[in-house]
Design brief:
Elements (H helix, E strand, L loop, with lengths): L1 H5 L1 H29 L4 H35 L18 H63 L2 H17 L1 H14 L7
């Protein structure tokens, strides 16, 4: 029992193989029995009757199919191109003219809706442009006012306050290493030449 469970896949393959071989053997036996057996009078009459019935059924099916095909063919118009029609020109020509005529015929129905929509869009754009101009003017006025206020505050500040503010800025620059390096470079560049020191 343990061997069977260990080799279960092999067991299944053997069973399937045996069943296939039995089926093939059965088919071969049936074929040899048919060829060995001679048709008797009753068998040949039954076979002849079966053959005639099958031929009759096939004939009726063929008639029905051809009748349906004829009826369908009578209803469908022929798709042969008339000899006077010139070939289509993809780069203009008759098809482009037909397309233009269709557009011209459709224009009266489309024009009022298009004009109304276009007019509405243009009016909206004009309103938006006016609002933008008003906002720009207000922004410029506020900037001018802010610069005037800043200039007035600078003018109001006494000279001493300016000196104190400059000293605080200088002390802040001396504590910052980058600002100190910049100050040294500016002194070298803008200061007195080395030969005159």
């Amino acid at each position: 029992m343990g061997w069977l469970l260990d080799h279960f896949g092999l067991f299944i393959v053997l069973i399937v193989g045996i069943s296939i071989l039995r089926g093939i053997a059965r088919i071969l036996r049936a074929g040899s029995d048919d060829t060995a057996r001679q048709p008797t009078g009753e068998d040949s009459a039954a076979a002849e009757r079966t053959r005639r019935v099958q031929e009759e059924i096939r004939r009726k099916i063929a008639e029905r199919r051809s009748g349906v095909t004829r009826k369908v063919a009578e209803r469908i118009p022929s798709l042969v191109r008339p000899p006077r029609v010139p070939p289509l020109d993809p780069f203009g020509g008759p098809m482009q003219r037909v397309g233009r005529k269709i557009e011209e015929m459709a224009e009266p129905w489309l024009r009022p809706a298009d004009e109304a929509a276009t007019q509405a869009v243009l009016e909206r754009q004009e309103k938006l442009a006016e609002e933008m101009r008003a906002l720009d003017a207000a922004r410029l006025a506020q900037q001018r006012r802010a610069s005037e206020i800043a200039a007035a505050k600078k003018a109001e500040r006494p000279a001493g306050d300016r000196a104190v503010a400059a000293w605080k800025d200088l002390r802040g620059d001396l504590h910052d290493p980058r600002a100190l390096r910049r100050a040294i470079v500016l002194r070298e560049v803008l200061g007195a030449p080395v030969g005159l020191r």
